[in-house]
């Protein structure tokens, strides 16, 4: 099980990530673009691709859900913290960050010169 401390620590370990808030919701941004939110206790919101979202919904509908609005159609996905695997949560947060990060930060991350060392990153991240 993961908690808000886990999410905060991991999200802020990514290059250029900053904690902020909008509409009284904690969020994490890179390049002033939101990639992760904490909308309700026990729930995380992530900006991933619609294709990845569809795969997650098919895989585990108890853990992953889609907002019933335009944000859900664009890939925003809710994750239940009580049931998501911690390694999968790291990978999903990283995927969300990658969608919003500028190329220079992606290059820095991929080269292992920023954020986590390259050998310590989750697969696919």
Can you give keywords for this protein?
25% strand; Aspartate Aminotransferase, domain 1; 5 helices; 38% helix; 125 residues; alpha+beta; single chain; 6 strands; six-stranded antiparallel β-sheet
Describe, in plain words, how this protein is organized in 3D.
- The structure is a single chain.
- This protein is α+β, with helices and mostly antiparallel strands and 125 residues long.
- It has one domain (4-120): Aspartate Aminotransferase, domain 1.
- The protein contains five helices and six strands.
- A six-stranded antiparallel sheet has the order 1-2-3-4-6-5.
- It is globular, with a radius of gyration of 14 Å.
Give the uncertain stretches in residue-range form. Answer: 115-125
Net shape: globular
Largest sheet: 6 strands, antiparallel
- In spatial order, strands of the major sheet run 1-2-3-4-6-5
Highest-level CATH class = Alpha Beta
Number of strands: 6
Helix content: 25-40%
Q: Which topology does CATH recognise?
A: Aspartate Aminotransferase, domain 1
What is the average of the pLDDT values? 90
Q: How far do the termini sit from each other?
A: 21 Å
Q: Can you write the helix and strand succession as a string?
A: HEEEEHEHEHH
Count of structural domains: 1
Count of helical regions: 5
């Amino acid at each position: 099980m993961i908690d808000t401390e886990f999410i905060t620590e991991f999200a802020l370990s990514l290059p250029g990530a900053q904690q902020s808030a909008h509409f009284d919701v904690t969020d994490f941004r890179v390049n002033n673009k939101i990639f992760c939110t904490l909308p309700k206790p026990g729930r995380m919101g992530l900006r991933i691709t619609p294709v990845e979202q569809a795969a997650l919904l098919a895989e585990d509908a108890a853990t992953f859900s889609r907002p019933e609005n335009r944000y859900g159609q664009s890939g925003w996905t809710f994750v239940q913290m009580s049931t998501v695997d911690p390694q999968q949560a790291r990978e999903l947060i990283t995927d969300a960050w990658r969608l919003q990060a500028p190329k220079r930060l992606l290059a820095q991350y991929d080269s292992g010169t920023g954020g986590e060392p390259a050998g310590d990153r989750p697969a696919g991240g």
